[in-house]
Sequence to fold (140 residues):
Amino acid sequence: MIRATCTDVIVRRLQHGEDLLIAVENVAKEANVHSGVFLLIGALDKASLGFYAGGGRFRPFNIERELEIASCIGNVADEDARIVVHAHMTVVDSDGKTHGGHVLTGCRIYIQAELMIFEMKGTELKRKIDEASGLHVLQA
Ligand SMILES: [Zn+2]
Fold:
């Protein structure tokens, strides 16, 4: 178990055409946040999500149309001195149908998205490969 304090909140509007996952990583790097949690809402015109298939692999699927990001949550941690973002997301299409999963690169921001990263102080979140599952698991 880890106990930490959330201190600063970094707020950034992501721009049309940006890759969601890469943009969150870049904001964390720019703000020097190595441990934190984040929330994001906005819209996409392409979602790339994954469903865990075992053995450290995700079955990827794409949705290529305008989507509302109903909820995107995740965390920021270090793995081998590299900032790693882990996020899950639920998106909604124009019929109100939802899709969700593990966020992969390739989620393209449509118009804009609002990102808030809550920096954690008093701890260092770390990820490490778990040989049994093949996943990069949080050390907590
Ligand atoms: Zn995941």
Summary: The longest strand covers residues 36-54. Residues 5-138 form a domain with the 60s Ribosomal Protein L30; Chain: A; fold (CATH 3.30.1330.80).
